[in-house]
Predict the 3D structure of the following.
Amino acid sequence: MPKPRTIALLVAAATSLAPHNSSVLAETQSCRPMEYERNPYTICEVDLRKHMLRLYWKNSDGTPYAYLSSLPQALRGGGRLLFATNGGMFDPALKPVGLYVEQGRGLVHVNTTSGYGNFHMKPNGVFYVSGDRAAVVETRAFLKHRPQADLATQSGPMLVVNGRLHPRFDRRSTSLKVRNGVGVRADGKVVFGISQGEVSFDAFARLFRDGLNCPNALFLDGGSAASLYAPSLNRYGNILSLGPMLAVFERGAIRQ
């Protein structure tokens, strides 16, 4: 058994190292649990000056990746995968149902049709990244300004539009689902939210507006599609196949 003096020295050494180790851990862990209005969520933050955000659908042989765990674990240059999540709605063939831009290439056009389901609950919107800037905008605003996008994904409905909740959301709604979405704060950071249980659209939108301070936010999908791959939290992705996926990497020296 170690002597009391030895134990004291070990405790002192661990204590002196704790602040440094904690700061390193905070830098490498982008995702964290959060409770808001008694609902548990996982929140993942992205600083585009430190991280690289990629959109994936098909691999090199033309077949969909389908599983978050199938995505590249690192970019060329050493940027390792930090987390990944569903990147928008898709049809039975796993094709995005709306705008899809990957590494500057538009592979699916904007969808402005009317119909049933969450995607068509207007206004819907687009999440896009251009250089080190990200934004969430209504689809009609995106079409009006036509920004140059490195990546873009269209989904719906909008959760928050210029500080206001989507007009069709009802605080008394009994439609509860697991949901994931994305918002952009005033400081430019991208924030992903994934509910750990079933929540209403209204509760999910309030999370982004009031809990995460995002003036604009977009619903990505719900149910089994609201998946997260985050090894730091022992979360390893989806069971059922997905279409588009958003992945966040550490910045490496060479872009893939």
Summary: DSSP finds three helices and 17 strands in the chain. Confidence is low (pLDDT under 50) at residues 1-27. The first helix runs from residue 4 to 28.
